[in-house]
Please model this.
Amino acid sequence: MTPQNAYDELALRAREMATLASTQAVLEWDQQTYMPPGAAAFRAQQMSMLAGMVHDKFTDPKVGELIAIVEGSDLVKDPDSIIAANIRELRHNYDKETKLPKELVEEFNKTTVLAHNEWAAARKASDFKKFQPWLEKIVTLCRRKADAYGYTGEPYNALLDNYEPGASVEEIAVVFEKVRIELVSLLSKINNSKKKPDVSIVERPYDVERQKVFGEMVAAAMGYDFTHGRLDIAVHPMTIGIGPGDTRITTRYNPRRLNDALFGTIHEAGHALYDMALEREKYLGLATGDAASLGIHESQSRMWENMVGRSKAFWVYFFPQAKRIFRDSLDGVELDDFYKAVNNVAPSYIRVEADEVTYNLHIMLRFELERALMTGQLKPADIPGEWNSRFKKYFGIAVDHDANGCLQDVHWSAGLIGYFPTYSLGNLYAAQFFAKIKQEIPDLTARLEKGDLLTLREWLREKIHKQGLRYRAGRLCQKVTGQPLSHQPLIDYMKAKFGEIYGF
Amino acid sequence: MTPQNAYDELALRAREMATLASTQAVLEWDQQTYMPPGAAAFRAQQMSMLAGMVHDKFTDPKVGELIAIVEGSDLVKDPDSIIAANIRELRHNYDKETKLPKELVEEFNKTTVLAHNEWAAARKASDFKKFQPWLEKIVTLCRRKADAYGYTGEPYNALLDNYEPGASVEEIAVVFEKVRIELVSLLSKINNSKKKPDVSIVERPYDVERQKVFGEMVAAAMGYDFTHGRLDIAVHPMTIGIGPGDTRITTRYNPRRLNDALFGTIHEAGHALYDMALEREKYLGLATGDAASLGIHESQSRMWENMVGRSKAFWVYFFPQAKRIFRDSLDGVELDDFYKAVNNVAPSYIRVEADEVTYNLHIMLRFELERALMTGQLKPADIPGEWNSRFKKYFGIAVDHDANGCLQDVHWSAGLIGYFPTYSLGNLYAAQFFAKIKQEIPDLTARLEKGDLLTLREWLREKIHKQGLRYRAGRLCQKVTGQPLSHQPLIDYMKAKFGEIYGF
Model:
């Protein structure tokens, strides 16, 4: 078999696996939107069967042999070539999938299913002690996973790599630490400011049907293509990239608050633009047809949500339209007051409800605790104490009970240790990309003020989306911005924006 | 391997194949309801991949070996036992799936995809000549299929058996001929009657939202369980049994006609009650967890739609509710006039819009032509002439052009020769079951008048639904009614009902 034949065979197998995985995505979308509740038990059987089939196809030893044939050939001589990138990631994923003993995978799956229910009960009772034995099991299993994968540096790296390939805890900790220090100081200034936005502007009745119309208008203006997508209601706002030509988003409406669905829709449409611009049809199942990382994905949603959707320039164009649609709610409201209201900063317990400034502090806290759990420096039993003391230090307020503290997130019960950092990486990448964009599109603000969102969208498509995972996130950042990841663009952006709003 | 082990292994494989097929059903439902139009191309790839996987699993020679082991054992000694029934149908399906040469399957699929487009164009132009070469190809391919399957009697039997296992053209032709003769005579009396229902009652504005509410009320009263199902809008009204605990129905609303969605919903809910009562979880993928035949399935939908939903007793209970919901449209309308309006009989060209009496004549005509095409007595070129002369004879009106005649149905272009008879078999089985039910539940009319639909539903569940395909349709009919299939119950029912309405 020639190396080219081996590569073609791998591409065909990758396409088959991706097609199978795409049927899982349809089932997932259905489950989140329209599935009758009584169908849940059988849906779990369908999903687990499909997952097993994908796993079996991928861990077929023949896949390893084919990868090895291409690796030993001239096809990968240029490490930046498309074939080299695709083989690099196939090797990475094949090794990870085959390194875990079957017994560990099964125990992990069984434990997390049970742990999820125990976590839900513990959160309801706001009693960490009930969840503690399950967190202990999960930490142990995650350590075993890390050992099976292998790692350099800390065991956390092996887990982080599942979500952010090639990232290292040692590198991001340096950036995160700087972010945290700067944000704690910024938050303190905001807390002490006398100039408080009037949030009542966005916390009054907003007709749900009109919210939906406005959300779809904004998504369409961003370039979200409704002939290849849909916007539905779901408990969990999400983007589901089903496959080539099918990228759907969901949101949820609060009839008494404008922000939730509006910025949620912009956020998901930001993810969706990335997904829609990937060369999925051409490279189905291969790295060059896939997103670079969760962090890069989140950079797209966060940039659209915050740097665009919460900018003054955006509302210069859209606020008059919003006033015509939400006539009663926005009667007599001025653009400047509306802009400040959607940018209100207020420390709060719950991450998913956090504003742009405090959101990253929520992540820093979780990242630090996860990292210490994995090195063993922190015991699960010490989580509540450690959580609460750090929370007081970073946010300036004391956690009242565990449901508002260390029990709030689903992630640990699902075994997703290593996932949280990607949220803040998204904000960091977004700011660094956005600073570069402002250099390269000097009239961006004027364009946004005229409702031109597509110039930005084209830039993102060319520089980021179409690259797929040809380069890993750190390398992509370097190529796009000329710099490695830094805390500075995000902090500069935050200081300028919130200094202006809060008057310091 | 013991025969019991072989059976257990078959049951496991059947469950896996059915789970895979159930993911196709989710994709199918999504495609019919909410899928973005731009996703169509990839959806075809997903569907064909899943179909290929099911086919490969089923035609694995190991399946044949396992079936043979059980067949040669005491497990099937009692031919009416559950295991014997399941093995009987596995053998039947395995033989059929493996008998078709791969080359024939591929040519059949390729031809029908092209033929579908050619048919659509020919129908649009109302020009049979354009479709004729494709019908010739399809008839030839269907003959080759029949030869590959093997048959006794006429080649048509091999095709009919795909939809109505065990039925024979020779037997049903005798029944159909009697039906046709009686219906032509009945229709002539109706056409000559001076008493015409006032159909304008149901052909005026009916608010679509209220149609939906009323349709769901009726479906719920029938016992359709919305925690295990949904009612959505789709171009093609249908029931999709996704799997255990998930049976969805669709309908379409005409804002100026009550009948379409209302009787369509009752029809689909009738199918769904059958699907929901099957022992799917226990026998997933096996005959005893599956429906007996398309004809028996249609008997359930038709019984609910016509014998219940278009009965006077049903409307004694539901008409007052309908009047409260459709206040303006039904203002001043009397029960008796409404009952007659929903039972209006009027010969028309299009089968899918036909009333209860003429519907079967549409089927008889198609059945007779299909049968003659397969024996070779009729050439595709002669179809329009033959269609039109029979239509004139049966319906008393002349077909104006091919789009209203032999080009109206999608079936032949899809290669579905042998499918049509199952529609009339459904009506025949429905009438025969219903006559038996009236004996066994003597106060059924009084129950329907009080809105009790669940007594009927329980009878159907116990006598028919829960049997699955333990007995084939003919045998099931004999067991349930004590008689082989006969034209008499349907004709008796029609004569009594329409004689009363049209006054003869």
Notes: The mean pLDDT of chain A is 96. The beta strands of chain A are 231-233, 239-243, 246-251. Residues 3-33 of chain A form the longest helix (31 residues). The longest strand of chain A covers residues 246-251.
